[in-house]
Amino acid sequence: MNPRYDLFENPFSAKFLKYVFAASKVFFADSPLPVTTRELVSLRTSQINGCGTCIDMHTKEAAHAGESALRLHLVGAWREAMVFTDAERAALELAEQGTRIADAAGGVSDEVWANAAKYYDEEQLAALVSLIAFMNTVNRINVISQQPAGDYQVGQLDPTT
Predict the structure, then answer these.
(1) CB 7 within 8 A of CB 145
(2) In this protein, which residues make up the domain named Carboxymuconolactone decarboxylase-like (predicted)?
(3) Rg of the chain taking only CA atoms, in angstroms
(4) pTM (whole model) above 0.90
(5) Residue 122 half-sphere exposure toward CB, CA atoms < 13 A
(6) Is the pLDDT of residue 97 over 90?
């Protein structure tokens, strides 16, 4: 696949992405979420949106952070997989409903929110909501502009470096 344009060479896109990536620093520097949860949610959101670029990135980042290949392979089937904690399941369900807002007239159900609130405090819930929104933004940019996947290097887009 050939990208429709170079995200980092196009002047407008590069300027916009500068701000987007600046906002993402909070996930790396100050996130109250465990790295594992952050990467699983990012991966699942990207799978739903069909963003190969982000699937590539978050699979590699999660593996680098110590995530097992088994768990990474099972993220798409998290409901049936016995390898995720109840807290991780709650975060993945929140990510799914938050990503598929158009598929559910009411958005994220009260039941899903209450389940997530059993495992995450308000600060962590705010981080989850922000991460889901962020991932949906970058997924859409990549999918619409047809960014290719496969050549991501761990740490390549770390905004703290």
Answers:
(1) yes
(2) 16-96
(3) 15
(4) yes
(5) 0
(6) yes
